[in-house]
Amino acid sequence: MSAIVGICHLNHEPIAPELGIALLQQLQKYPADHIDAWHNEQVFLGCHAQWITPESVGESMPYHDPSSGLTITADAIIDNRSELFEKLQVPPANRKEITDSALILLSYKKWGNDAPKHLIGDFAFVIWDEHNRSLFGARDFSGSRTLYYARTKELFAFSTLIKPLLSIPGLNKQLNEQWMSEFLAIPITTEAVDLFTTVYKHIGQIPPSHTITVCNGELKFSRYSTFTYHTKLKLKSNEDYEEAFRDVFQSAVSSRLRTHRPVGANLSGGLDSGSVVSFAAKALREQNKRLHTFSYVPLEDFHDWTPKSRIANERHNIQSTVDHVGNIHEQYLNFPDQNSFTEIDEWLEIMETPYKFYENSYWVKGIYQQANALNLGVLLTGSRGNWTISWGPALDYQASLLRKLKWVQLAKESRLYSKELGIKQSRIWPILGKKAFPAMAKLMSRNSEPELPDLINPEFARKTNVYERLQQHGYDFWGNPFQDVYEVRKKQFEMLYYWNITGTVGCKQSLKYAVWERDATNDLRVIRFCLSVPEEQFVQNGFDRSLIRRSTKNYLPEDIRLNQKVRGIQGADGLHRMLPSWDVLIDELRQVVSDPLVSNYLNIVELKKALLAIEKNPRPEQVFETDFRILMRSLIFRRFIKKHA
User: Fold this and answer.
1) How many C-beta atoms surround the C-beta of residue 254 within 10 A?
2) How far apart are CA 310 and CA 297, in angstroms?
3) Is 213 helix (H, G, I), strand (E, B) or coil?
C-alpha cells in the first residue's frame, strides 16, 4: 500500500527533480515504511510506501527495469496472483517472492494497455515507457485506490492525494462549481456523477475502471471494465450453486488475508460482514492467526427509538456470530467522546473535499484508529454485499412473478414469506401490486408524495444546469419508491459514480492509519459469479437472500443465518451523542444560514425552515431525518469553503 506521485514535462523538455521532490514531501505526515523516488531528465516518479503484504517488505518502489525501459510506481495489492503466474509463465521458484508491482509490470509487457483487464485486486499505478516517452496509468474497476492528476501548460502530474498537486507552481486552485453543484444536488452520499472532475477546477481524477495515457502532450482516457448480465450459470441443483458460491467466496476472502501483520474485520449482526468473518476466521485458523473484529455499539445511556424491525444495538447478534465462528478476538466499541460534529475538521483533512456521510463518520474513523493501535495490516469489510453475496429482494422477486403471471410459484413464495415473517398475506398483496406495476402506482399516487427539500440554492442549480447534467448521466433521484430494484442493481455496476466514494474513503483512511481496507464482497470474481446466478437462486421458499443463507449453513449461527425479521441500524445514537454540545452546534448552524460566503451555493430558505424545526426540541430519531441531514451537510460544506476562502 502506497501513496504515489509523479510529474513530467508535456513537451519532453527536461524536468527539474525539485518539482517531484516537492510533491513527495507533501506526503510526510503519513506513516511510511519506505520512501523513494526515481527520475531521469523527462520524468519523476515517487512512492511513499506502507508494507502490507509479505512480498512488499523491503520492496524498492518505484522500480526501474533497464532491459525494457519501463519504470513503475504502484499502489496495489493483486489478488489473482496464481492465475497471473500461469498466464505470464512465471517459474514456480520465483512466485513466492515476486511483488505485486512486478506482476503489474510483467502484465504490461505482455498485454500493453490491456493489462488492467487481467488484474483483480485494489490498485492504482503509473508506468513510464522511455522508448515511447509515454506514461500509462490505471485505477481498479471500483476505484478502491484514488488517483488524481493536474495539468498546466507545460506539466502533467499525478498523485494518490489532492494536496501534493496543489503545490505545483502556477496551478490555479479555483474551486469547481460544476462539482459543487452536483455534490449539493445529489441527496445520497454520492459526491458527483462526472468522475473526471474534483472539487478543484484544475485537478481531475482517473475514474474507476479507466486507464490514462499521456503521450506527445495529449491525455487519453479509456474505460477497460464493464459487466455483462446475459450469461447465466446453469448448475444441476441448489447444492451445486452453494458449493460454487463457497469456492469463489473463500478464494476472494483468503486472497485478502495476505499480510505479514494481524488481520481485522468490521463485524455487525448481519449476513454480509458475518459471512466475511466466518470465512476469514476459518482460513486464518489454518495459518495459526486469530481474527480481530471491531463492532460499533451505541452509548450506554442511549434509549433505542428505532422500530421493532430494526436493532440499534447489535451486540447480542454479533456475539452469537463470534461464539459460533470461533478464532475471533472481538471488540465492542462505543467511542464515548466522539460524534459527527467533533470529527468534521479531521474528516475534511482526510477527504480533502466536503463529504456527506456524517452519520457514521465517528465510528468509522474510530475503528481505523483501533486497528492502527493493534498494528493490523488488513481490515476486512462487506460493504458491497447487498448487491452481490446477499442479493435477493423477496417482494420484488414475487412482483416479477406477478408480472409474468406465474401464479403457482407466486402463491407458494407469498405464502411461505408471510409465514416466515408472521404477517398475513393480505398485507403483502398491495405492496406486490405497486412493485409489479410501478407506472400505474406512480400515476395513482402522483400527488401524494411530499417533495424533499433541496440543499442546493435553486439559482445556483439553474446557473450550473445541474439537474440536466444529472439526468444526462442517468442519475435516478433519491426517494422514488417505484424504481425497479433489478434496474437499480444493474446501474450499481454500470454507473461508476455509485462506487467512487467508498473507495475514496477507504483509501484515504488507509494512508492515515496504515491499514488497508479490503472488501471480499466487492471482488471481481464474486461479482461476476453473483451476476451470473439465476434469480430463483436468490429468493426461495419464503426467504430473501436465499443463496447466502443456504451457503453459510454451519458457517453462521441459525439465528443470524435465517433471520429476516429484524435488521441492524448503525449510528442511531448519532444525534444523542451531540446533545452535550447542542448549543454550540445550533450556534454554528445559525452562522451557516446567515453567511454570505455560502448563500450563493446553499438553499438558505429551506435551511432556515429545517433549523427552526430542530433547534429547540432535539429528538434522537431526527438523526436520519431530512431536516437534520441537510443542516449537517451544509455545516460541513461551509467549513470546507471557509478553509479555501
Assistant:
1) 18
2) 14
3) strand
* Number of domains within the chain: 4
H-helix segments, 476-569: 485-494, 500-513, 524-532, 546-551, 558-561
Query: What is the rounded distance in angstroms from the CA atom of residue 77 to the CA atom of residue 56?
Result: 9
Whether residue 379 is contained in a domain is answered as yes
Tell which residue, 208, 198, 192, 205, has the closest CA to residue 470.
Answer: 192
Pairing of strands 2-9, 155-159: antiparallel
What secondary structure letter does DSSP report for 587?
Answer: H
Among 116, 162, 161, which residue's Cα sits nearest to residue 136?
A: 116
57 and 179, same structural domain? yes
**Residues 49, 139: one domain?**
yes
In Å, how far from its chain's centre is CA 168?
A: 29
- What is the mean pLDDT, run by run of 10 residues, along the chain of 645 residues? 92 91 95 96 96 95 95 97 96 93 97 97 97 96 97 95 94 95 94 95 97 95 89 93 98 97 97 97 96 97 93 96 98 96 96 96 96 97 95 92 91 89 86 80 53 88 95 69 80 88 94 96 96 95 96 97 93 95 97 97 97 93 94 98 87
- Domain edge (last residue) among 524, 550, 568: 568
Contacts of 558 (CB under 8 A, 6+ apart): none
pTM: 0.94
Taking the alpha carbons of 458, 499, 513, 63 in that order, is the dihedral positive or negative? Answer: negative
How far is 512 from 338, CA to CA, in rounded Å? Answer: 18
Helix (H, G, I), strand (E, B) or coil at 214: strand
